[in-house]
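Protein in question filed below.

…
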Amino acid sequence: MDRQTDKLTYQQLTRELADTRLRLAALTQDFSRLNAAYKELMAIEERYRLMFENVPLGYMSMDKNARLIDANQAFADFFGYAIDEIIGKRFADLLVEGVEYHLNVTFPEYVRTGKSKDLVWKVRKKDGSVATIVTNGNARYDENGDFIQTHCMILDVTEHRKAEEALHKSEREKALILGTMSERVIYHDEHCRIVWANHIAAESAGMPLEQLSGKLCYEVYHGRKTPCEDCPAMMVYKTQKPRTGEVHVHGKVLEVVANPVFDKDNHFIGMVQISNDITERKQLERELLDISSRERKRIGHDLHDGVGQQLTGISFLATALRKQLSAITPDAAETADRIVESTEKAKKLMRSILNGLCLVAAEPQGLMEALATLASGVSKLYRVDCTFSCEKPVLIDDIADSTHLFYIAHEAVSNAVKHSGCSRIRISLDCPRGAGRLTVRDNGAGLAPSQSTNNGMGLRIMRYRAVIIGATFEVKGQPGKGTSIVCKIPSSKICTKEH
């Protein structure tokens, strides 16, 4: 019986030992797998730590009390602390302002939602300097949903914020300067749409400043679907050169100065126009011109009716005296003859003065007649081949405009005769596409390109006269190939029919 019991115990122990060996083998395999997994986890952890420590962005982690429990080297370097110095500090301890907002608003919200996005903070570094950072992060929770810690990345935006503040300051200063100007200032893009404008521009448009952006000036200010004719600003888009002129709209006269805008690569990117309402100034100029014209007419009338009649009377008396003295005293008769001759010369001189006082007749065709007389007079006086051509009548109702155009032509002809050494001058007046054009062309020495923009008082006066009547003025010439002076007259100045 004892032997049988021992045998059973031995068999049982043998089976248990075999089971133990199997379990031990299984545990050995499990241990090997766990060991491999551990090593892989440690390798991942090492890679993460290397990335975490060397990433240029700062990283920090806060516990439920908003104290720092972890940070990378970039975060510590940014604030100027060693990592062991900064761990345990409250994030609030690093803030220059907004501590209560952080503790009572943003951090509780962070814990509740698990996210923090684009929060901007002013912080103080260990050396006392102030910087601006932006934080973004997520929160970590346990399996029960309880908050464990935050994971935050920080970005230094100090220089960016300084640049933004400088830009905002510049914009404010620009707006302040533009706001004090009495002129309308508008910046257009390369497609003529408004980019920005000053308050005067907004007021004259009758809409808020921000609503002007993206609109076309001729739609906003003039209710047009197409650009205004003869607008200097529109010419900039064709020539990419500065233009100056006048625009007549709704009974007002605007002086427009337009300049192209180029980028650093000299590519055309837009245009700035400055316009000023000069209606009152133009009215005053017109009144002065009218006063001057009336005064010339009065002087002419006084000369004709006063001095002219006296000279005629003296001529008659001298003629009668010559007849009476011819039979009595021949020498005295010759003196009377000389008095008659002197009187006729004085009358011719007076007529010349009268013509100089009123060069252009106060009629629509007055400019054409005056230019024809100018050409004829120059040919006779200077022995230069000077002609005037006008295939179709160009009628200008405003005597002041006609007078300015005549003086432009007169100055151009005078310059050609005196300075160019020309033998031929052509004066022409035509009306292509509804707008008037006055041209004076010679075959003289010509102008260098630098001279065509500013060549003394004569050209400046001609340009001024053109601006006064809203015309454009251009000088073309090459050395040895003559000079052309072209004045383009707005279509609004041209009469459609003779009165």
Summary: The longest strand covers residues 130-141.
